[in-house]
Amino acid sequence: MINGVHVVIYSRDAEADRAFLRDVLGFPHVDAGHDWLIFKLPPAEAAVHPGENDGTELYLMCVDLEATLAELTAKGVEIAQPVSSAGWGSRAAIKLPSGADLALYEPRHPVAYDL
């Protein structure tokens, strides 16, 4: 039935953000035509949280958030939000070339992506 998840990131500078995903994060990709890149992402999981508003959030997960941020800043990536602690893990955000924030987190909970 369901065989995958397709995530869409809307961007004011899609070309620059695609280059960032390709060149800085190193995500493999296919070209769907006219430089419309579709990226292979790491394994994924989904959670449903209670909230005042409906919506979605995208977090890239990592095993060691501090080390990941150090590696990214060495590549010239700007940290948008420094590391903070939440009950479920540590989180931070980086800046995409378009100026948008991209959240990262190191989970403290059991993960489902390798089931």
Can you offer a commentary on this structure?
This protein has 115 residues and is of the alpha+beta class. The protein has a single domain, classed as 2,3-Dihydroxybiphenyl 1,2-Dioxygenase, domain 1. Helices cover 18% and strands 27% of the residues. It is built from two helices and six strands; from the N terminus they run αβββαβββ. The strands form two sheets. A four-stranded mixed β-sheet has the order 3-6-5-4, covered by helices on one side. Strands 1-2 form a two-stranded antiparallel ribbon. β5 and β6 form a beta hairpin. It is globular, with a radius of gyration of 15 Å. The two termini are 17 Å apart. The model has no long low-confidence stretch (mean pLDDT 94).
Index terms:
Glyas_Fos-R_dOase_dom, alpha+beta, 2,3-Dihydroxybiphenyl 1,2-Dioxygenase, domain 1, Putative enzyme related to lactoylglutathione lyase, Glyas_Bleomycin-R_OHBP_Dase, four-stranded mixed sheet, two-stranded antiparallel sheet, 18% helix, VOC_core, 115 residues, lyase, single chain, globular
